[in-house]
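Is this the right way to post structure tokens for a design question? Let me know if I should format differently. Anyway, here goes:
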């Protein structure tokens, strides 16, 4: 099971995008779309500080890392939850876990596995620190309960060499189509295969058909 397109966009929108390493509210070095060293490579504590020289390349790198991280968080939710999930419920749980890392120990997971979806939805708000995260928890709860997805563009924020993000004004806004194409990762290009000489449209088949026509006319 994977996040839906709308769920993936909701998660990216909640996280925002900073194409350089920054200090989050807990003073943890973070990069791109909420990536920390706890999620694996790259190690955010050793990354070059400040904005990348090539903004487009920095945005692509942020999405590349996000794409790799997301698979781990999706798998963790599937391991923790023992009951079938609707797509919007899964989207909400992955967003919650991506932000908190708490899916295995959260009360909402215990309630959900016990079959009490009402209590599970209410328990999203148990994870409400710092206070600035409450709107996100409410959005995840509403997505889990009602399938209500947020909308809008994806902000890209600048960061200085000390790790401070300038939230006064985004330096770019990505459309949903742009963000989705980047978040899904590069699509594999099917190889172009030469026609098989034994296939119906191969040259041997065409040659055989030509001689067969000549014989019938003789």
């Amino acid at each position: 099971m994977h996040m839906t397109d709308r769920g993936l966009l909701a998660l990216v929108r909640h996280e925002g995008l900073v194409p350089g390493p920054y200090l989050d509210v807990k003073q943890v070095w973070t990069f791109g779309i909420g990536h920390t060293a706890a999620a694996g490579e790259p190690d955010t504590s050793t990354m070059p500080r400040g904005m990348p020289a090539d903004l487009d390349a920095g945005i692509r790198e942020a999405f590349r890392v996000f794409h790799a991280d997301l698979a781990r968080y999706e798998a963790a939710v599937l391991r923790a939850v023992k009951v079938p999930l609707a797509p919007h419920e899964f989207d909400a749980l992955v967003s919650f876990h991506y932000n908190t890392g708490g899916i295995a120990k959260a009360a909402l997971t215990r309630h959900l596995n016990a079959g009490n979806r009402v209590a599970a939805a209410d328990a999203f708000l148990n994870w409400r620190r710092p206070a600035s995260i409450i709107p996100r928890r409410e959005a995840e709860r509403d997505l889990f309960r009602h399938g209500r997805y947020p909308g809008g563009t994806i902000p890209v924020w600048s960061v200085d060499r000390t790790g401070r993000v300038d939230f006064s004004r985004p330096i770019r806004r990505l459309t949903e189509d742009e963000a989705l194409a980047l978040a899904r990762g590069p699509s594999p290009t099917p190889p172009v295969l030469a026609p098989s000489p034994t296939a119906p449209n191969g040259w041997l088949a065409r040659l055989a058909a030509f001689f067969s026509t000549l014989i019938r006319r003789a």
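Format looks fine. Someone answered above. Worth noting: The first helix runs from residue 5 to 15. The chain has one domain: 5-184.
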